[in-house]
Amino acid sequence: MTARASRRRHVAGFGVFTLLMVAAFAGLGIWQLQRRVDKHALIAALNERLASPPVALPQPSQWAALTEGKDEFRRVRFTASYARLPDAMVYSSGSAVRDDVAGPGTWAFLPARLADGETVVINAGFVPNTMQDRLYQDRVVSRLLTGGPVQLTGYIRFPESGGALTPRENPARRLWFTRDHLAMERALGWDEGGKPVAPFYVDLEAPVPESGIPKPGPLQVHLKDDHLQYAITWFALAGAVVIAFGVWARGQRRAQVAP
Question: How far apart are CA 200 and CA 218, in angstroms?
Fold first, then answer.
């Protein structure tokens, strides 16, 4: 009787452990399905913004109310003049939102002045430049500095932060590795005149310079959507735990009835 009671306790204990594991794995599977629904809604919203006609750039009084969740990738059109100030380059090995950009190069970030003196930082486009030749980058950017107003069409974007493995910026070469236009502004003095700098930057869609470089262009959202595969994996693990418990419990029953 003592051995039988001990086996029952083991079965009960392993059964409770199995239920906990199944609940955890099933919960993770359900969570992935919920994330899939949210991801599809986000993709639909972003695609709608990208396809919408451009609207006027929000007024400076509205800038503080803009958020990444409701305003990222919103198309805007406005007039500004590129300031004769140092540009910044952001290293890139390709783009997740530009199908026409591949290989190493940099994104050219330039400050532009609005009519009332506020500054909006513009990502003027991609500069193919495997060797990171600063003189070449200066030449292609200098063609944009005409001093006159230009009508710009692009997408509102928000600054990003680097990870633990992201290289540090090199202000001497005006080279960054994250699209943090506010850090560029602080390092390069883009806020001269006391007027505010927009908390967002604009990914330029048009106009395209005669030389084609920097290369602006339309954006396309390609968000990774592996949530269904992850959900299937978690549900499969839950099923595997149930099967394993069933095999083990049957072995215990056979051992119990064995002479």
Answer: 18
Which of 256, 236, 242 shows the shortest CA–CA distance to 32? 236
> Which DSSP state fits 54?
P
DSSP 170: B
Would you say the C-alpha torsion 81, 82, 85, 88 has a positive or negative sign?
A: positive
- Name the pTM for this structure: 0.73
Residue type at position 168? R
pLDDT of residue 149: 94
d(CA 93, CA 105) in angstroms, rounded, equals: 6
Q: Is the pLDDT score of 129 beyond 90?
A: no
CA distance 201 to 141: 17
Q: Would you tell me how many other CB atoms lie within 10 Å of the CB of residue 120? A: 25
- E strand intervals along the chain: 55-56, 75-82, 88-94, 102-113, 119-128, 150-157, 175-176, 197-206
Tokens of residue 65, six digits: 């109310």
Cβ pair 103, 55 in contact under 8 A: no
202: its two tokens: 């604009």
